[in-house]
Amino acid sequence: MRRAPARSALLTLLLLVGGCAAAPDDKPGADPGPGAGDRWRPKPGTDWQWQLSGRLDTSFDVPVYDIDGFDHSADTVAGLHDDGRKVICYLSTGAWEDWRPDADEFPESVIGRGNGWEGERWLDIRRLDVLAPLMAARIDMCAEKGFDAVEPDNMDGYRNRTGFPLKAAHQLRYNRLVARLAHERGLAVGLKNDLDQIPALVDDFDFAVNEQCAQYEECDTLTPFIDADKAVFHVEYEMETDDFCPESRRLRLSSLLKKWELGVWREAC
């Protein structure tokens, strides 16, 4: 979730999802998925472009594009692949969005408070019985379109006012479920924000995506990913590049300055 300018009983068994038996998602790295050795694993310092709004501009000479999974077709992904790019599928996994084509499939009982963005509301991530098949279907879509990885957003609901009594343990279990669903489909997966749980989750995720760690003086908390030779894709919105790029280079982050709407414009470190 793009931070707004103002900072913002578990099931014992999972459903069988996507034809695969559920793994114990509360254990680190519980299921690496098929072909784990062949999965894309971006390295620290990998340059990227993140565009979630406006007409997609594919002209940037960068090896990674992160784009909306619903808004773009398999042909768009194939075109980026033809240009030698890896492509990340942006999805919201922790919040409901009223404009998505599957919005009516989410029962009202799992939809909570607004998360600060118009049309978005937090999900009750304790309800794995409801959310696991819905998220599996979304990640299936990413795989069928040919994406290389998933960027699951809103992965830190337990730190926010969601309307549900979410705890850290609920978040760990849910985030590991999302990672497992991606890995079962041969996709890499990034941990979005959720800084406090990085030590527990770094083994479950292939890279990290972070917003505003420099503004809030939190970038050092991402070093477990760098130490594990995993990329950290980082963006700032309210700083100048001269104020955060030197530290980003020291930490080997893949840093961009972007505008809040996450359109075409970018300024890389």
From TrEMBL:
Region feature (Disordered): 25-44
Domain Glycoside-hydrolase family GH114 TIM-barrel: from-to ranges: 48-262
UniProt-listed Gene3D superfamilies: Aldolase class I
Protein name: Endo alpha-1,4 polygalactosaminidase
Matches recorded under InterPro entries: Aldolase_TIM, GH, GH114_TIM-barrel
Entry keywords, A to Z: Signal
Signal peptide: 1-22
Species whose genome carries this gene: Streptomyces neyagawaensis
Pfam families referenced in this protein's UniProt entry, alphabetically: Glyco_hydro_114
